Automatic annotation (TrEMBL):
<feature type="region of interest" description="Disordered">
    <location>
        <begin position="113"/>
        <end position="143"/>
    </location>
</feature>
<feature type="region of interest" description="Disordered">
    <location>
        <begin position="167"/>
        <end position="197"/>
    </location>
</feature>
<protein>
    <recommendedName>
        <fullName>Integral membrane protein</fullName>
    </recommendedName>
</protein>
Length: 284
């Protein structure tokens, strides 16, 4: 594994200026790195441990970028929660909790440590491997698609208010909607609960298959939502789905650059979302 030798760990631990931190667990991981938890771990050369990791991103005294991987997930979680609340927290992982020191950053970081040189990759002789770099999100693809789904989950109300429920077909309008299958509204559910959009049909079919054959850990995740609802996130080859268990769903496809396809509840979606929520990974 790149960066796990004693020299690299020592270099990263020597006056590491912590800039940010993220969790890498089955229930919460940077989705830009992969469709599921094992894939995200593989992007960093890490084994997918059940308890996960904390990723501490910072610079050493020379300004070099380092990602320190620790197994003290609770410590990193507390730090992130404190920062989110606007509180100061000195994140200083114990050396015994350090699993690896990886050169570079796997995610884009917009800030830099004061008083040290600008962020740069460590010296190859110290890094003992190629530096991590953020996935390319400058053009549409899996990484950008997953980031789009993240944004919808975070800004659900903003996206939801753009959808007119009357655009979703009803039983009385089934025959009329069948004639308009190529129209934008065809992404919504028809009378039998199946969407008119071919790509969305495939997504829902693959999501249903997850219920019978569990996918890799983290492919389906459930998180808090207002009221008694849950926010569901599911990913698969070439697609992402974001939904509220008491509402509609949104689908993003690699094959549909920049498109967000709404899926009305209809008679089948509620049952699918309930089944996915039961088997989803949840934050502890």
């Amino acid at each position: 594994m790149a960066g796990t030798d004693e020299d690299a760990v020592a270099a990263a631990d020597d006056a590491l200026y912590v800039l940010t931190a993220v969790l890498l667990t089955p229930a919460k991981f940077p989705s830009v790195l992969g469709d599921d938890y094992p894939e995200a771990c593989a992007a960093l050369g890490l084994a997918p441990l059940a308890d996960g990791y904390g990723l501490v991103l910072g610079q050493d005294g020379d300004g070099a970028r380092w990602t320190v991987v620790v197994d003290d997930v609770s410590l990193v979680a507390v730090a992130i929660a404190s920062w989110d609340c606007g509180m100061e927290y000195d994140l200083s992982p114990d050396e015994r909790s350090v699993v690896a020191a990886l050169p570079g950053w796997p995610l884009a970081v917009a800030v830099a440590a004061p008083g040290v040189p600008e962020p740069h990759d460590p010296d190859p002789e110290v890094a003992d491997g190629p530096p991590l770099t953020p996935p390319d999100t400058s053009r549409w693809g899996p990484a950008q698609r997953r980031l789009g789904a993240d944004e919808i989950a975070l800004q659900w109300a903003v996206w939801r208010e753009q959808i007119d429920d009357s655009a979703f077909p009803t039983t009385d309008g089934a025959s009329e909607d069948a004639e308009k299958e190529d129209a934008p509204a065809a992404a919504g559910e028809q009378a039998d609960g199946q969407p008119g959009h071919t790509g969305v049909r495939r997504v829902l079919a693959e999501a249903r298959a997850y219920v019978d054959t569990p996918p890799p850990l983290g492919r389906v995740r459930s998180s808090f939502a207002p009221g008694d609802a849950r926010t569901l996130r599911a990913d698969g080859p070439g697609w992402s789905l974001v939904a509220r268990t008491d509402d509609i769903a949104f689908v993003l496809l690699d094959a549909e650059p920049g498109e967000v396809l709404p899926v009305g509840r209809g008679p089948e979606l509620p049952g699918l979302l309930e089944a996915l929520d039961k088997m989803a990974v949840r934050p502890i």
